[in-house]
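Whether sequence alone determines local backbone shape is best considered at the level of individual chains. Part of our work consisted of pairing the sequence of a single chain with a tokenised description of its backbone. This step matters because it turns folding into a mapping between discrete strings. For completeness, the protein is quoted in full, as a sequence line and a line of structure tokens:

_____
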Amino acid sequence: MALLMAEGALAASFAVSGTNFQVASSKLSSDGLASYVHTDRSADGKGHPVALLGLDKATLTDICQSARVKTPLGTVVFKLSAGGDAGTVTARNLVIDGEDLVGDARFGTAEIGRDASTLDEVPGVTGPQGAFGLQAGDIEVSEVRSHAWSATGGNFRLKGLKLAVKLGGTQCF
């Protein structure tokens, strides 16, 4: 899936909703990171600049994802959470299209400013030739807070999954 996303095959058939969402975790780690600037498109054609973040093997101590959604009944919060006391959350080939990322980070062997077409830390995640890219050999980010437009991945394991939709509910942060 990461390969299809990076090559644009998935992006062409995956229009983002037009509503970004919050992602939070106490700790995210991966054996590698590859990232470059990308543009997501919503169904109406509007572009959303993002940093495409590719993680080959991601482990999170917990996860919270939430979005405010307008409905005929009023604004609801769609909220998904997992991990914590139930165990870790894992994902392979995780690709997050985020507009920001906040946290305390440690990067191993970081390469910042590398041509995105030559990224090789995460299999299948490369960008267009001449585009700004970065990669790191291994990463750990604590107190993760991000706003994203999309997230895709394979083999998600969400221990202790909880999904809620509530009028006037609270978001992750």
